[in-house]
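Question (not urgent): is this output format expected?
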Amino acid sequence: MAAAAAVVTPSGLEDEVSRSRGEGAGEMVVERGPGAAYHMFVVMEDLVEKLKLLRYEEDLLRKNNLKPPSRHYFALPTNPGEQFYMFCTLAAWLINKAGRPFEQPQEYDDPNAIISNILSELRSFGRTADFPPSKLKSGYGEHVCYVLDCLAEEALKYIGFTWKRPAYPVEELEEETVAEDDAELTLNKVDEEFVDMNESAKQEDILESTTDAAEWSLEVERVLPQLKVTIRTDNKDWRIHVDQMHQHKSGIESALKETKGFLDRLHNEISRTLEKIGSREKYINNQLEHLVQEYRAAQAQLSEARERYQQGNGGVTERTRILSEVTEELEKVKQEMEEKGSSMTDGAPLVKIKQSLTKLKQETVQMDIRIGVVEHTLLQSKLKEKSNMTRDMHATIIPESAIGSY
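Got this back:
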């Protein structure tokens, strides 16, 4: 599995960054190796394997209808906007998988606020983020791969995942099969036949031959091709192994004599070079001590400035929200003022008021006339009632006086 390959760690990344910046023993400037530019590809491949272990395809991609990223998605620039959105989505998901509540970012959120929150969560895990937040805005690069890889490691730790040693399959050695041939015999067979012949010779007496020597020679020449014995070497024989060991030993001893001289000369040259480098380093450190002190002071000021920037950047989001609310209220007030200003310059309401006053005056005159008529009618009724009462009083007094005269 590719995830078992070397995983970049914060200390490793800091060492590479410090070596590229010139930090280290004796403040010597050491350039990054030629393979450092390709290290983020390895980190990205490890990140994909860790995401698969976290089941991000089922829990994240299918739920949000996202395409699975390629093995080098965050290592190469393709679409910065899409890559930044994918980075924020993955980071938020990994933070939640690591046991920390984190809201899923939206497309129209402030990028600076999102990056600041992600880096704050990364630092809360004990990880270092000694690089500008603007490095993450592009959505690709070694810093993006580093942040996602750290968050993936924290998520794996939270779920209790541990790496185990790889189990390699046991390879069985196949035994070499030697085809038997009538015309070929192994060394062991020859030894066995020779022993058998010796035993048979001891048991039987030696017989005197009566065969002619010429006929014997002709018979030998005739059957000689058939009596050819080929001894095939067996690779499993310990004698061959011993001979090979002696040959290798002599070769190693001869090569060691030549190589030892070269190594001794090389060792002497390296020792002299190291002594020169050490003396030169001490001389440079003594000559540049004041510059080193200034550099350390500048580094301390830079760290303080970064802390202040992070503290100030944390309140930018809240102030931005307050500014938007104040802007909305200001727009409402401006709209009301425009409506009132347009109504004040318009003469239609004044004309309506004059017409209403004229109508009120007319109604007042009519009301006064009606009031006068009512008062007159009431006065007449009162006078009439009074005259009737007087007449009735006179009518009642006259008969009494007439009765008294009689």
